[in-house]
Task: structure prediction
Amino acid sequence: MINTKILLAFAAVILAYLIGSINFAVIFSKIFIKKDIREVGSGNAGMTNVMRVAGALPGLLTFVFDALKGFVACFIGKQIFNYLHAAEPESLLFLGTYGAFVCGVACMLGHVFPIFFGFKGGKGVAISVGIFAVCCPIAIISGLVIFGILLATVKVMSISSLSATVVVVGASLIFYDKSALFWPQAVCTIIMGVIVFLKHKDNIVRLVHGEENKFTIKKG
Result:
């Protein structure tokens, strides 16, 4: 018989993936401009493309709700794992930290490959804000500072996002939860960082060739 604790932990991970699969870029673009954001602009289902095509308000709403779904998924995962750990304190398998990180990976995979939207989603930047707000607040604060500085000066979203990703990953590896093992946190963090970079592969190619556009917001 399968252990009920394992089933509950697995359910938390599946729930995190399903939460991540709710693509707010598609939802808000259909509400505001009656179009699927994946069929206009760059074709990416994320905040940047929504801002460029639909405007500031739908773009900001996309960012807020994407970050929120990352936070909710990780928070739920952390609480469920804490509950399982409290029932069996001698076991370190169900520490809340592990629940947050594993559900963070699942939620990001849902965001990038959403089951509700044909597995075509965003690039994992906005959702990272919510994920690491639970997993490692110091890391995401550091990342947001770097992101804001670079976007204000360089005005290239991909450079800002990728630089912030490096900072978040690095800070997470430094300021990891000392009450849990380092390597599970490190593995999950690196996986999420790699996902963001892989989803930006076209941007990286354009950056190398000096063809990446500066960040703009649709007026009016």
Notes: The mean pLDDT is 94. The longest helix spans residues 56-87. The CA atoms of residues 47 and 60 lie 7 Å apart.
